[in-house]
């Protein structure tokens, strides 16, 4: 299975590309914004597509034309304004979904926010509510497609070393989780088809990731 990782140069994306390249049955195609970022991925043996998420759908579709699955890990980051949040976390996500459909790819994994309910938008601090709203509507758009989708809602992300263990369910108590472990959750979601049509929250825990995924 060839997997297009959108947002590959992000912290989750880099872990994911490495894990995919280490898997016997998977091959990564890293979608990055700047060609200067390509060396890291080429050194791993991954393919590279240089596409800006603010480009049109056709540009993203061309990156997805020869893959079997798409993973959206991109984000505008915590230091950008509301405009970038809407252009990347909402419009970029929707364009990627539409490009995936246009390319004839069925499998799509979305990295969302921990809670993207309407209540979460209303309760979020003013500085965070645009991000939650963007993720909310991107999730709604994906749910309304016929793609074989999985929506992953990670807890508060850290750069700690992953443990390989998580707590994972439709609803969990808020907690933190290592980005490395989220990348492993994505990998496991790609290889276990029981995650199709599902969405779940993930935080640190004591259950091995493959076991947690297979118990969904």
From TrEMBL:
This is Uncharacterized protein YbjT (DUF2867 family). Pfam families: NAD_binding_10 (PF13460). The lineage of its organism: Bacteria, Bacillati, Bacillota, Bacilli, Bacillales. It comes from the Bacteria. Residues 7-191 form the NAD(P)-binding domain. InterPro entries: NAD(P)-bd_dom, NAD(P)-bd_dom_sf.
């Amino acid at each position: 299975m060839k997997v297009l990782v959108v947002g590959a140069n992000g912290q989750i994306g880099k872990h994911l590309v490495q894990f995919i390249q280490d898997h016997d049955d998977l091959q990564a195609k890293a979608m990055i914004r700047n060609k200067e970022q390509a060396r890291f991925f080429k050194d791993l043996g991954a393919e590279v597509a240089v596409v800006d998420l603010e480009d049109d759908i056709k540009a993203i579709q061309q990156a997805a034309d020869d893959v079997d699955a798409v993973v959206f890990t991109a984000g505008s980051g915590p230091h950008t304004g509301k405009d970038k949040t809407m252009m990347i976390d909402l419009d970029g996500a929707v364009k990627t979904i539409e490009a995936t459909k246009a390319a004839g790819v069925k499998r799509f994994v979305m990295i969302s926010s921990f809670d993207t309910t309407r209540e979460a938008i209303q309760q979020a601090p003013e500085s965070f509510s645009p991000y939650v709203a963007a993720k909310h509507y991107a999730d709604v758009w994906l749910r309304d497609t016929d793609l074989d989708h999985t929506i992953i809602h990670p807890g508060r992300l850290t750069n700690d070393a992953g443990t390989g263990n998580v707590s994972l369910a439709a609803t969990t108590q808020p907690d933190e989780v290592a980005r490395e472990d989220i990348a492993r959750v994505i990998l496991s979601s790609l290889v276990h088809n029981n995650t199709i049509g599902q969405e779940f929250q993930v935080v640190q825990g004591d259950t091995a990731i493959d076991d947690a995924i297979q118990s969904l």
